[in-house]
Write a structure and sequence with these properties.
Elements lengths: L1 H17 L2 E2 L20 E2 L23 H15 L2 H14 L32 H14 L6 H15 L19 H7 L7 H9 L5 H8 L6 E3 L4 H5 L13 H10 L9 E3 L11 H7 L6 H8 L3 H12 L1 H16 L20
Parallel strand pairs: 1-2
Antiparallel strand pairs: 3-4
Helix pairs in contact: 2-4, 2-5, 3-5, 8-13, 8-14, 11-13, 13-14
The structure holds protoporphyrin IX containing FE.
The site of protoporphyrin IX containing FE (HEM) has 26 residues, from helix 3, helix 8 and strand 3.
Family: Belongs to the peroxidase family. Ascorbate peroxidase subfamily.
EC number: 1.11.1.7
Enzyme class: oxidoreductase
Length: 357
């Protein structure tokens, strides 16, 4: 144990020292693939958004697995070119991981004699996707750098890579998360905001994780890619307020289009794009659509219609300025990725992301 501790400390120091650039208030975001190592830019993470230092840093795998990010990117390229929606599914996995006992890959665990899988929770069941892609990344990483790269870091790398490959921003990604030895079905049911949330609800869910209004709006911008099932927005079409009327904030022609995808009875698994204009491209159309009453989920539209000054203003700014949105998205992704990571000697690096070792 003592020699393991010494090795760990030495590697950590080496990796820290080898990182050369510091980023100031914002993560430097740049287009392309970032650096070859696990870090994506080689800068030391300064806490972004005012959170205390999480113990993670971009160069964490610089010595132990410099190919980590390249391996992740090569699997992602293949998976996303086969099915562009996979980028969205992988981005969402990181979110559903981080909001439940922190970014510790708990979301990836299957049922175990002592706990139930988060995959069975209401927000996740028949909904979360991409587990096979994570398995493939993990098995490639185990071949090259056995027992080194955690499943929690794989989720973070896959979320960033998916954003980049869909046309979105790149950012310096702090790494060094370790994997949990348990999952929380209850935590998953309690902590992931439902799609019919009010603006106040949304903010409460985010604040519980140490995130603020800016994070709420910028991270909701992830809905610029991907799909949602009818069951998640049906209420808006037929009975928004218990009076058998549609949601009045829903633009008329969009409402009619949605009704054809999502009939009053049945069709609950039919899907519709969250951003109908460019569902596979990471851009700021999501915010432009909200501005014209074409947000798909209640939780999307209330960012504007919820009468909360700050979020309304942000939606307008992000609709006007995609560079501003990209910058804030990158910043908030780092912040979300810093939610209660397991570091040091706690937790483990799973060999198979679906099971504890
Ligand atoms: C603000 C609160 C949020 C709510 C209420 C919410 C809700 C939802 C719902 C209901 C779906 C559709 C699921 C289904 O039909 O099976 C969805 C999809 C998605 N969400 Fe969110 N979400 C939120 C925030 C986020 C955040 C923070 C991210 C990532 C940073 C994210 C990324 C995604 C993506 C990319 C998809 C599409 C997934 C796919 O196509 O497979 N969401 N979300």
């Amino acid at each position: 144990m003592a020699s393991f501790k010494l090795l760990y400390t030495t590697l950590t120091l080496l990796a820290l020292l080898s990182s050369s650039t510091f980023c100031s208030g914002f993560p430097s975001f740049h287009f392309g693939w970032g650096n070859g190592g696990g870090g994506g830019g080689g800068g030391v993470s300064r806490p972004i958004g005012g959170r205390k230092y999480s113990g993670l840093f971009p160069g964490f795998y610089s010595h132990t697995c410099p190919q980590a990010n390249d391996i992740v990117m090569s699997v992602l390229e293949k998976a996303i070119s086969k099915e562009p929606r996979m980028a969205a599914s992988l981005l969402r996995l990181h979110f559903h991981d981080c909001f439940v006992q922190g970014c510790d890959a708990s979301v990836l665990l299957d049922d175990h004699p002592t706990f139930k899988s988060e995959k069975k929770s209401v927000p996740n069941k028949n909904s979360l996707r991409g587990f096979e892609v994570i398995d493939e990344i993990k098995s490639k990483l185990e071949q090259t750098c056995p027992e080194t790269v955690s499943c929690a870091d794989i989720l973070a790398l896959a979320a960033r890579g998916s954003t980049i490959l869909s046309g979105g921003p790149n950012w310096e990604l702090p790494l060094g998360r370790r994997d949990s030895k348990k999952a929380s079905l209850n935590g998953s049911n309690k902590n992931i905001p439902p799609p019919n949330s009010t603006i106040q609800n949304l903010l409460t869910f985010f604040q519980r994780q140490g995130l603020n209004e800016v994070d709420l709006v910028s991270l909701s911008g992830a809905h610029t890619i991907g799909m949602a099932r009818c069951t998640t927005f049906k209420q808006r079409l037929y009975n928004q307020n218990g009076n058998n009327q549609p949601d009045s904030t829903l633009e008329r022609s969009y409402y009619h289009d949605l009704k054809s995808v999502c009939p009053k009875t049945g069709g609950d698994s039919n899907i519709s794009p969250l951003d109908r204009t460019s569902p596979m491209t990471f851009d700021n159309t999501y915010f432009k659509l909200i501005m014209s009453g074409k947000g798909l989920l209640t939780s999307d539209q209330v960012l504007l219609s919820g009468n909360l000054g700050k979020t309304m203003e942000l939606v307008k700014h992000f609709a006007d300025d995609h560079v501003l949105f990209f910058r804030h998205f990158a910043q908030s992704m780092v912040k979300m990725g810093n939610i209660s990571p397991i570091t040091g000697y706690k937790g483990e690096v799973r060999k198979n992301c679906r099971r504890v070792n």
